[in-house]
Amino acid sequence: MADHRTSNFSGFPDRGDGPLFCPPDVDAARLAFRDKPKGLSVKVMSVSEAIERFVQDGDYLGSGGFGGDRIATALLHEIVRQKKQHLGLAGHTATHDFQILAAGNNTGRGRLLKRVDVAYIIGLEARGLSPHARRVSESGDIEFCEWSNYALAVRFKAGAMGVPFLPMRSMAGTDTYKHSAARKVICPFTGIDLVAIPALWPDVSVIHVHEADAFGNCRIRGTSVADFDLARASKRVIISCERLISNDEIRRDPTSTVIPYFCVDAVCEVPYGSYPGNMPYEYYSDEDHLQLWLKSEVDEESYAAFLEHHLFGVSDFTEYLERCGGLRRMQELRHEEFFPNG
Amino acid sequence: MTTYTRMELMICAASGLLADGAVVVVGTGAPCAAAMLAQKTSAPNLTLLFEAGGVGPQLPRMPISVGDSRTFYKGLMATSMADIMETCQRGLVDYTFLGGAQIDQYGNLNSTMIGSDYHKPRVRLPGSGGANDLGSLCWNVMVITPHDRRRFVEKVDFITTPGYLNGPGAREANGLPPGTGPYRVITDLAIMGYCDETKRMQVVSLHPGVTWDEVQNQTGFELLKPTASRITSLPTPEQLRVLRDEVDPRRYIIGRS
Fold first, then answer.
1. Phi, psi of B190, deg, nearest 5
2. What is the model's pTM?
3. Does the CB of B227 have a partner CB in chain A at under 8 Å?
C-alpha cells in the first residue's frame, strides 16, 4: 500500500459545491409520512386523473426502473401532456425517461425540468446520445447537481430508512464530488474519510410494476433497480401496472410484495405501460421506435412533427401504442422477450 | 495466417485478462463481448454482474441496456443497483470495465463534459452513471477504447471517475479503498498498465505490426515504455470462432471496426 505522506493530496474537500435541491429535513419527512392516508382504500384511477391529482408544478420527481427498462412511460407522457412546470428530477440512469421529460423543455411549452440531480442523462446507453436532451442540457435551461448512480440509490435508501444521510466510499477525489452536494464525514470508529450522501424524499414518484392490487400492493419481477427504496422514500407514489390483481392473490403470496399499499397514492392499470422500454418477462424494448425518436430529434421541424404525432396529438397512452403498431407490434416484442435467440 | 479486425483483437485481448472464478461488472458493447467470450473459452466460471441488478446470467444475446432483461436471463439473481454497488464496496468484485470520452496518464476518466467551464460545456455528456462507483470500488479497472490523441489527453476536462488521481497515494489519501484502481487499458494499438512506482500509464505490449512511435504519437501525454519488448498475443482461431459464431453473430460489436 502506498504511503499516504508521499501524496500531494490532503484528502478531498469538506463539501461539494453543487446545489442541494432537497435538504434532508428528516423530521419534516416524518410529518409528511404521518399525514399520508393509511386506510386500505381503492386507489384505481385513470392516468390523467393520477397525474392531475398527485403531480404539482415545482414538485421533485422520482422515476422508477432503469431509463429504458421497466419505466412508467404512460405516466411520464401524461406529465408532459399536462404541461407540468419546473419539476426536479433524480436522474439515475435516466435515458428514455429523461428523453420524454425533456420534450417539455425548449419546445415552446414552458420549462418542464428545472433542477436535475444527474448521475446519467442525455445518453440512451449503447443507442447513442439524444440530440434534444443535449440541446436542453447545454442551453442552461436546467440546473444540475452531479452524483453517481450509487449515490442516488443511497439517497433513496437513506430516505427509506428515515435518516438524514448515509456514508459511502465512492465519488471522493473527483470532479463528480466537487459538483455534487455531498460532504465529507470522518468515521467515528476507524478515522477514515467517507462521503456523506444526503437523504432524498421526492415529492412524487412514478413507478411501473408487473402487478398491483387496487390498494397499491405491488409485485415487481426481475431487477428492482432502486424502486424498493424509491417507493418508500417518496412522499407520494403513482403506480402503473401491467395487470391489476386481487387482494386475495396478494395475501396468498405476501413474499412477492415489493411495495406495500401505504406507500402508494394511485394505481393505474396500463398494459404495455413501459413501452418502448423493456418489461422483464413481458416484452422487450422497441429498438426501432427508439431509433425513430432519436433520429427525429436531429432537427427541430422533424422533432416537432414527431412529438405532435406520438405525444401531444394523442389523447392517451393507448392511442400512442396504436400509432406505434398496436397489439401486433406488442406481440412481436413479447416474442423478442421470450425467445431472445429468435 | 488468421485474419482478424482490430475490434476482434481488443475483445480477445480483454477476454484473456479475466481470470477464471473471478467476478466482473460489465457494461454493454465490447466489455460484455469480452466477458462472454471468456466464459465460453478460458474462464467458464467467470461471474458477470450488471449494475442495475443482474447477477450471473446465461446471456442469450448481447444486452442493449445494462438493466434489460437479458442481464438476468437464466441468471442466479435479479437484485437492486445498491446491492451490486455494495458488493463492489465490500471488496468482492475483481474487475470492471469502463469507458469515457477522455483518459489521462493516471487513468482518470471523463464522461461528464467537454470544455473548460462546467457551467458552459462545449459538449454535455451523460455523466458518471455507475462509472464513478465501479471505478472507486472494484479491485481492477479496465478500459477498452480506440487509441487517439482526442481521447488520450494530458488533462481530462472533468474527472468523472477516479483513476490514480494525481499520482501515488492519492486514492488512499482521498479515502478510496486501498489496493483498488486502474489495471489495464486495451486499445486498437496496445495493451497498457500502470507503473507501480509512479502510477503512470505504461505500455505492456504492442499489438502485432504496431510500433512504439505510432502508439506514442496517438497519445497526448508521455507514455512509459514497457519493461520488456512484448507483442500482444494473436487471437486464437478458437477465440475468433466463438466470438463470431456465438458471442456476436449479428456483428453488433465486431462489425464496428
1. -160, 170
2. 0.96
3. no
